[in-house]
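A favour, since you know our structure tokens better than I do. Just paste the record in under my message, thanks.
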Amino acid sequence: MKKYFLDVLKLQYADFKGRASRRQFWMFVLYNVIAAVIVGIIGGIVGLNAILSGLYSLALLIPSLAISVRRLQDIDKEWYWILISLIPLVGSIWLIVLYCQPGTPSDNRFGKVPDAE
């Protein structure tokens, strides 16, 4: 958890440069979903679900955008490809397909090949 979630929050909070491997991206997404569920449960128990969930989402907005952009850069796409998700239904599916693509096997214009682990 530390390497994929906490390090992204601490060391790469707003780092839009470089590349993120598929593993790093999807592990971040997994831990983010688990943390959001826990925040939702705690918020439901104390009666502040909307407030806590909103604060959590706001706190993770920048790191989520940053790792998404770095993931797109790993497949040699510019940051603006993230905007494809604005197309209803099809755009989100297309973006998920892009996130699932293997990264370029060698260095590209965005940096060196990220560690697989």
User: Anything to note?
Assistant: The chain has a mean pLDDT of 92. The chain has one domain: 2-100. Residues 22 and 100 are 7 Å apart (CA to CA).
